[in-house]
Amino acid sequence: MRRALLVSQLLALALTALTAPAPGAGTVVGRVAWTKPNVNGTPAGESPHPLKPPEPIEENMRVLTDANAGAGLTIGAREGAVIMGPESDLIVSRSVVGVATGAAKELDFLTTLGQFRFVFVPRPKGARHRVLITGPRGAKMNLYGTDVYLSVTPADLSVYVMEGVVVVTSGKGVSVRVGAGQWTRLAGDEPPTLPAGFRQGGLQPIIWGPVLPSDSPDFKVIPLPDLPK
């Protein structure tokens, strides 16, 4: 039931928010759903400026949240959403959008620091759809119909999978497949740890974003109370 409600919220929000880009703008890959100050966006080749809903997120735009800040972004026409916690850095580095449907067939994210929740609606069997997140030192995470929490620090990267599957690959090409209810950690240039179960901390209110300790299998779920109803 919770999953069905979340998916319906994402679809409604994306369909009402996504419009054609303004003349001269880059490829629009999503929209700002909400922000808690201060959140800045830097379009490619431009200066940073405060982000406000429902501003478009363009390909190669950098989104930065300050301490005690957070942001919610919708992605694509019907794909999903990204929740950013405090002191987080994210770039949608590449997007391949279907001309007929407006749906994103391929999405590439780049991050070097931060706390995130990525939620993507599962695609029909056989549909071409890829979500790839690249982290520090060439680490890569391929998402498949996933609700996933990601913590990135200068020392390590931790992935907690609530639903779906994530294939986590180190910069040296060593991969693990992480299923629902499992987590893994990448420290430096080491291979990812073997997937292990984690204990869910509960749906406790978290104002700005995720709380994901990189050295513990315990974490608190980030609810989505700020998505428009």
What is this structure's SSE topology?
Elements: H1 2-17, E1 28-36, E2 39-42, E3 49-50, E4 56-58, E5 62-65, E6 70-75, E7 80-84, E8 89-97, E9 104-120, E10 130-134, E11 140-152, E12 156-169, E13 175-179, E14 182-187, E15 196-197, E16 199-200, E17 218-219
Parallel strand pairs: 9-10, 16-17
Antiparallel strand pairs: 1-4, 1-6, 2-3, 2-5, 5-8, 6-7, 7-9, 8-9, 9-11, 10-11, 11-12, 12-13, 12-14, 14-15
**Helix-strand makeup class:** mainly beta
First-residue to last-residue Cα separation: 16 Å
Cα-based radius of gyration, to the nearest Å: 16 Å
**Strand share of the residues?**
over 45%
CATH fold-level topology: Jelly Rolls
Tell me which CATH architecture applies here: Sandwich
Q: What's the level 1 CATH class?
A: Mainly Beta
Average of per-residue pLDDT values: 75
Poorly predicted residue ranges: 1-24, 202-229
* SS field, number of helical segments: 1
Largest sheet features: 15 strands, mixed
Strand and helix order: HEEEEEEEEEEEEEEEEE
Question: What's the total count of β strands?
Answer: 17
Mind explaining what this structure looks like?
With about 230 residues, the chain is mostly beta strands. The protein has a single domain, classed as Jelly Rolls. Helices cover about 5% and strands about 45% of the residues. The protein contains 1 helix and 17 strands. The strands form 2 sheets. It has a 15-stranded mixed beta sheet that branches. The longest helix is centred in the first third of the chain and has 16 residues, at about 1-15. It is globular and about 40 Å long. The model is unreliable at about 1-25 and about 200-229 (pLDDT under 50).
